[in-house]
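INFO  loader      accepted 1 record
INFO  loader      residues=356
INFO  predictor   begin
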Amino acid sequence: MGFGQILDQNTSAGEVFNESIFCPLKFHTRNFNIVWKRVCTIVKRLMGRHFIIFTQTCSKDGKKFFGKFDIFCFYSENPLFDTFPKFCNAPCESPANDHPGSKSELSTFNEMKHSLYRPAAWMLLLLLAVPPNTKAQTKPDAWGTLFFNGPYHGKWGLHLDAQVRSTPGMDQLRAWLFRPGLQYKLNKRNLLTLGYAYVEGRINSPGIKAITPEHRLWQQWIYFQPIRRQTLQHRFRIEERFIGSTRYVEGVGIPTSSIYSTRFRYFNRIILPWHPKESFEKGFFTTLQNEVFLHLTGGDRLTGKTFDQNRFYLALGYRINKIWDIETGYMRRDVQSTTRVNKLDTWQLAFYFRPD
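INFO  predictor   done
INFO  writer      dumping tokens
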């Protein structure tokens, strides 16, 4: 059902808690454990397959922030683990743990200083060893992506990402995407964006050529959460999708009608430098991220399901300088169709440009 890998951090308790959205309520530790278990059960039933959540834990009085970073990965079938995180064993249960030199059942940072890399290995192992009830894609596809953020004038800045996506086997273009946006920095940890996107899907098979256009309006909020010397990015996005009817350029196919749908996306991402320093300006790094997609409206006309897809991504990257990053990695996509969840394997090459 799930697993939790606890990572320590040394972030200021008051500083993070005051701005964090993850600890708004004051729970007694035992009650919080019960509530969290119920939430896990509900979400697991809703999703019906694997997904990943990054969370944080609070102390029992709801004020002190221990700075524990938890990763949970749930599976609805063939569970490898059948445990929930035991918050009652956390340092908040024992006052002695608040004193320097004490040791709780949770590993200290000195004992787990390299454990930032363990979640990547665990999740990749689980993805390969415990496949959900899906139909596997026979050949992988490929994505090429460019992300552009900046420059900023005061609190205002620009966003742009452009993508090309191939068909399975990487022999033809399946879709391309152009997504500009306008950003506003609330502060150093909160960023708002409003944008537009155009997506064009293509069918190019013998005797049939077709195009399916899609226009999107989207709004998002990004919260940058400090994790020691690294930053965990949480992104919450709402998309208003105007999916046009398929236009057949050559041949004849099944006619489709236009569809309007609203979709919610939650994304988290962390960059783990191979040689962590106070300021990471150059060198190799590992990227770990996950994104879940849920239909809010219009799902009945698409797949009939609330769940749309999940994307798990593990990549190797190199920071050329403060402005440029390049990374390549593997993306495991579980995409809902009307009858089943399709397991899709994707290789991605991405460039990040930050002219701030």
